[in-house]
Design brief:
With 307 residues, the protein is an alpha+beta fold. The protein has a domain of 79 residues: ApbE-like superfamily (T-fold). The strands form 4 sheets. The protein has a 6-stranded antiparallel sheet, with helices on one face. It has a 3-stranded antiparallel sheet with strand order 4-6-5. β5 and β6 form a beta hairpin. α3 packs parallel to α7 and α6 runs antiparallel to α7.
């Protein structure tokens, strides 16, 4: 749903007194790794005496999660599900994202729906042109969260031609998992950015982490202060199928059409980045009053930017 968003991964951590990980308390120079994560440029920066080992562990976790959620890796759990319509003994992480998706689908009156993947594929195939009504209707018949069944034994897509995308939740989920890994390693002050943010503790200057939302247009709204919180943003036309930028990548599962919204950028904070990710995605198809109503079901979440 909410993909093709840039997936710059940056993990920043202030130095930690190493008793929790069996290391002496001492200052450490930042170490930065740059590479590719989830198909995009990535970087990891840690200020810690054992930064190299922590970076390696974070990279391994990212790779493991990519092998579950990637739509580009034909061997990923999600790709195998989409190819056959059934996945036996699904990974726990996949089940967690499906459970959150079910919750958000119900709370958003169907606006959040990972089964839009066939629609997304159709728009990608039309090379920037609006699809023909007959083709749109054919793909729309494959969409519907109510046709997804999942439990610990299997995930099943019960309509022919169905496929899922978890890009409206998985970016945030990966941020949460990497942050949890680093927290368990003893780090107190960490910022994880996988396109969505999970902030532990404080920045190296001792203040809250300052995160500036970005709609991809160069506009720079006021930064959002995060401490032990997460933030996700959605830009309905931040990525578009057409050169004019009118056919945005957020698709309405009810009509099959791109989001018809005045919003350029929606940013939400929540205790978990996965929740903030799903909320900001669903809000791309809502009025302001509908957003306010949705947030009543998630009292720990906040709408922090709307433009």
């Amino acid at each position: 749903m909410n993909t093709l968003r840039r997936r710059l991964l940056q993990i920043s951590a202030a130095a930690f007194a190493g008793a929790a990980v069996g290391l002496p308390a001492r200052a450490a120079a930042p170490l930065q790794w740059r590479g590719v994560a989830m198909g995009a440029s990535a970087s990891i920066t840690l200020a810690h005496p054992d930064a190299a080992a922590l970076i390696a562990r974070a990279r391994d976790e990212i790779a493991r999660l990519e092998h579950i959620f990637s739509l580009h890796d034909p061997a990923s759990a999600l790709s195998r599900l989409n190819a056959t319509g059934r996945l036996a003994t699904p990974p726990f992480e996949l089940l967690e994202c499906l459970a959150l998706s079910a919750t958000m689908h119900a709370a958003s009156a169907g606006r959040f729906d990972p089964t839009v993947q066939p629609l997304w594929q159709l728009y990608a195939e039309t090379a920037g042109q609006a699809p023909a009504p007959a083709a749109l209707a054919q793909r729309l018949a494959r969409v519907g969260w109510q046709a997804v069944r999942f439990d610990a034994g299997a995930v099943r897509l019960t309509r022919p031609g169905m496929a899922l995308t978890l890009n409206g939740v998985a970016q945030g989920y990966v941020a949460d998992r990497v942050a949890a890994l680093l927290r368990a390693a003893g780090l107190r002050d960490v910022l994880v950015n996988t396109g969505e943010f999970n902030a532990l503790g404080v920045a190296p200057d001792g203040d809250d982490w300052q995160i500036t939302p970005d709609d991809g247009s160069g506009n720079r709204p006021a930064p959002v202060a995060l401490r032990d919180a997460a933030m996700a943003s959605s830009a309905p036309r931040g990525t578009a199928f057409d050169a004019a930028g009118q056919i945005g990548h957020i698709l309405d599962p009810r009509s099959g059409l791109p989001a018809r919204t005045p919003w350029r950028l929606i940013s939400v904070t929540a205790p978990q980045a996965a929740l903030a990710d799903a909320l900001s995605t669903a809000m791309c198809l809502m009025t302001r009053s509908e957003m306010v109503a949705l947030l009543r079901a998630f009292p720990a979440a906040r709408l922090v930017h709307l433009s």
